[in-house]
Amino acid sequence: MKTILVTGATGQLGQCLQKHSKLYPDFSFLFCSSRELDITSKEQLESVFKSNKIDYCINAAAYTNVEQAEKEREKAFRVNADAAADIAEFCREFQAKLIHISTDYVFNGRKDEAYLETDEVDPINVYGASKLKGEEKIQEILKEFFILRTSWLYSEFGHNFYNTILKKAEEKAELNITTSQVGTPTNANDLAKYILQIINSGSAQYGIYHVSNEGEATWYDFAKEILDYSGKKEGVTLNKTGFYQTLAERPGYSVLSKKKTNRTFGPVQNWKISLHQLIDEN
Ligand SMILES: NC(=O)C1=CN([C@@H]2O[C@H](COP(=O)(O)OP(=O)(O)OC[C@H]3O[C@@H](n4cnc5c(N)ncnc54)[C@H](OP(=O)(O)O)[C@@H]3O)[C@@H](O)[C@H]2O)C=CC1
Ligand SMILES: Cc1cn([C@H]2C[C@H](O)[C@@H](COP(=O)(O)OP(=O)(O)O[C@H]3O[C@@H](C)C(=O)[C@@H](O)[C@H]3O)O2)c(=O)[nH]c1=O
Questions:
Q1: CA 253/CA 187 separation, integer angstroms
Q2: Keywords of this protein's UniProt record, alphabetized (predicted)?
Q3: Cβ–ligand 1 contact at 153 (below 6 Å)
Q4: Whose CA is nearest to atom 4 of ligand 2?
Q5: Strand 237-241 to strand 174-178: parallel, antiparallel, or no bridges (unpaired)?
């Protein structure tokens, strides 16, 4: 039986992994919240790796507050880079394979077609820089890793753009949503299912992969689709804006090419279809 450690287990992706883990009764999961396992503590990491024979570690723990990271650079790097490196060290020592999640924000957004895994990285905010450092350290330390770059995650769980829009719709708020970023909203349930499929396949095709839904959208397009499909647009004013004031700069274009991922592990569905599924289910 394969034993799978999941860090950050009560975060958005962590909760999606918990939900979909039920489909894998032959796997033994060790879900650890930040309270149960602080990944910045080498002692705590060592203790988990020593007392369990871990085959895979899914690192779903991260510092994800893009705005706050501009003010807490050190903390963002401690969690997203240093702790990721420590996890990689323990994976090497205890022969576990690492599945680490990274982001479209490692790119500067100046390209005008989908980013390949091999394209130049050049983050333009602190969060992106800290995630890139994590990627780099993992590759230096470990051979048996999958770094999965994803984008614009949303789900029924936790704090995300989808839940923010639904909440604002309940409040009948006036929404001003930016059209100045193009990317791909990705249902975290799809990512969770994809990760579990990779483990189940036993693949040894290690490396960096892009795993997001297919297609592209602006945040405005995403908000509009959420409101239209959920039938909650009544009384809500939705405005396009070319500029939404934020502390952190974000890439203008961050669609990820899935050519390599599709070839290796199979397709991921279109973002609109996946969004509709989530709304239908909830
Ligand atoms: N959300 C998004 O839009 C995107 C996310 N990603 C990446 O996907 C992954 C999952 O993101 P998502 O689930 O959305 O993020 P969340 O912020 O929902 O979850 C992150 C989890 O990490 C935990 N965590 C933070 N610091 C530590 C620590 N020191 N030790 C242990 N756990 C810690 C948090 O716990 P607590 O709440 O208790 O602090 C939280 O449960 C991350 O690697 C992220 O960088 C990539 C692209 C898009
Ligand atoms: C709430 C809101 C946001 N926006 C803008 C701000 C920003 O440019 C964009 C998205 O806002 P958010 O703060 O929800 O998203 P942001 O924190 O940028 O999301 C990112 O999170 C990290 C973790 C990732 O890895 C990325 O892939 C990406 O998903 O929408 C509006 O235009 N209007 C609004 O009312």
A1: 19
A2: NADP, Oxidoreductase
A3: yes
A4: 177
A5: parallel
Three-state DSSP state, 206:
coil
Is the C-beta atom of 189 inside 6 A of ligand 1? no
| Domains observed in the chain | 2-155+187-213+255-268 (3.40.50.720)
Identify the helix (H) or strand (E) that includes residue 88: helix 83-93
Q: What is the position in ligand 2's atom list of the atom closest to the CA of 128?
A: 25
Specify whether 127 is catalytic: yes
Global ipTM: 0.99
CA torsion through residues 120, 257, 153, 225, sign? positive
Phi, psi of 218 (to 5 degrees): -95, 170
Q: Report the candidate in 150, 116, 154, 147 with the shortest Cα–Cα distance to residue 133.
A: 147
Its pTM stands at 0.98
Q: Which helix (H) or strand (E) holds 196?
A: helix 188-201
Q: What is the number of the ligand 2 atom nearest to the C-alpha of 181?
A: 8
Q: Residues 10, 12, 17, 20: what is their CA dihedral angle, to the nearest 10 degrees?
A: 120
pLDDT in tens, 46-76: 999 999 999 999 999 999 999 999 999 999 9
> CA 275 to CA 273: how far, in whole Å?
6
SS3 158: coil
- Which of the ligands is closest to the CA of residue 130? 1
Residue owning tokens 């369990």: 52
